Amino acid sequence: MTETPPPTSEMPDAHSWHVSRLIIAWAVAAVIGVLVSVLVAPEHRFSWLVLAIGVSTLVTFGLQLGTAQREGFITRVAFSVAGSVVVIAVIDVIGLLFSR
Q1: Across the chain, how many H-helices and E-strands are there?
Q2: pTM (2 decimals)?
Q3: Distance, CA of 78 to CA of 22 (rounded, Å)
């Protein structure tokens, strides 16, 4: 008789997510978002926010490539970039509300 392997879960374990690296990427996005909201004039803000998202994406790639773990790379990068975009968007909306 052959034994069947135990079923694997759909979600990877917490170690493979490298949560600390996700938080670092989101923190970098938050710092850049705050700097753009505070230092850039409203008419130039959109261009700088695009640059902020680009820099956050590069930071995310660097952090995730540093793990040297292939499994779940695309999921981790997508989740991290999406989180960075949301963080920057929320900071920008808050900045727009307070600038009026």
Answers
A1: 4, 0
A2: 0.79
A3: 11
Please give the structure tokens belonging to residue 84. 């960075």
Taking Cα atoms as reference points, which of 90, 86, 88, 99 lies closest to residue 36? 88
Separation CA 52–CA 37 (nearest Å): 11
The structure tokens 């909306």 sit at 93
| Max intra-chain CA distance, the chain | 73
Say if residues 29 and 87 touch (Cβ distance below 8 Å): yes
Task: Please choose, from the candidates 54, 66, 46, the residue with its C-alpha nearest in 3D space to the C-alpha of residue 28.
Answer: 54
Q: CB-hemisphere CA count at 13 Å for 13? A: 2
Q: What is the pLDDT of residues 80-95, one digit of tens each?
A: 999 999 999 999 999 8
Question: What six digits make up the tokens of 82?
Answer: 């999406």
Distance CA 59, CA 62 (A): 5
- Residue pLDDT, tens place only, 3-16: 776 665 555 555 56
Give the pair of three-digit tokens for residue 22. 């996700």
